[in-house]
Amino acid sequence: MIRILNNISKIILDYQELKDRLEFDEGFKIQLMLKDLSSNLFFLQEHLTNERERYYNHLKVNIKDNMAVSRAEVLAKADVPEYDKLKQIVRRANSCFEAMRSNQSFIKEDLKHK
């Protein structure tokens, strides 16, 4: 999982370093970045699913012990903090993915008008 997270960070940093005024060759770079980012997100989803299962298993055990649901949720979050962290990382990486797609569309439209 660490390798996947490092790959995602590198892709986003490479995207951030692109010039403000993007040209066609940067559009090609963005296309490659999107490919890499989407495949890394796919594999990260497997880890997120595993953490989700751990979280809900903790929640279920706590509720079976006649614990209040709100208390069970607090304990499950404390026992499986990776679940919330991964959700946030995936959400933010998806936002970057969408921004990259928008930028790529802008480049395509810009090229049509040249």
Q: What portion of the residues fall into strands of 2 or more residues? A: under 5%
Could you tell me the number of beta strands? 0
Low-confidence parts, pLDDT < 50 over ≥5 residues?
none
Class based on secondary structure composition and strand pairing: mainly alpha
Secondary-structure element order, N to C: HHHH
**Computed CA radius of gyration, to the nearest angstrom:** 19 Å
Averaging pLDDT over every residue, what do you get? 90
User: What is the count of distinct domains?
Assistant: 1
**What's the story with the biggest beta sheet?**
none
Question: How many separate helices?
Answer: 4
How many angstroms separate the termini?
43 Å
Helix content: over 70%
What spatial form do the alpha-carbon principal axes imply?
elongated
A few lines on this structure:
With 114 residues, the protein is an all-alpha fold. It contains 4 helices and no strands. Helix content is 87%, strand content 0%.
Could you list some keywords that capture this structure?
114 residues, mainly alpha, 4 helices, 87% helix, 0% strand, elongated
Topology of helices and strands:
Layout: H1 2-16, H2 24-64, H3 69-79, H4 81-112
Helix pairs in contact: 1-2, 2-3, 2-4
Can you offer a commentary on this structure?
It is a single chain. 87% of the residues lie in helices and 0% in strands. By secondary structure, it is mostly helical. The protein has one domain. Helix 2 (24-64) crosses helix 3 (69-79).
